[in-house]
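Open question from group meeting: does this chain pack into something compact, or does most of it stay loose? Before anyone orders reagents, we agreed to write out a predicted structure and look at it together. Recording both the input and the output here so the notebook holds the full record.
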Amino acid sequence: MKINLVEKIEEIRMQPEHIRLRWVWGSVAVSMLLIFVIWIFSITLMFKSENKKPQNSVDIMAELKDQMQQVPNSVGSLEEYVGDKPLTLDSEGVSTAQTKDSTPASSDISTAPIQSSAYAN
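Structure tokens returned:
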């Protein structure tokens, strides 16, 4: 018994409106049931994974202590990255010299150019 989907859709299209609405709400109900079942399974898996975590503060502190002991072994020191080069502003790409284009900002509003006639008053 093979049902052709296109033929079934055409058959439903020929039905009166109240029959088509039954098909729509039936499809919605089946879809929501499927989504609800998937959601329930994901919630149960989430709670099962939470139960595997340490329950008391002693276990949590022991786990954090183990993690902190592993950090110094995995990260190199600053001297390894920098070497003998001193840290200065120039070595970081920051220039302290003023160029010809750089002018200090004027605090006097009267010397600033008017940008629009709306600001003239």
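Observations to bring back to the group:
The chain has a mean pLDDT of 75.
DSSP finds four helices and no strands in the chain.
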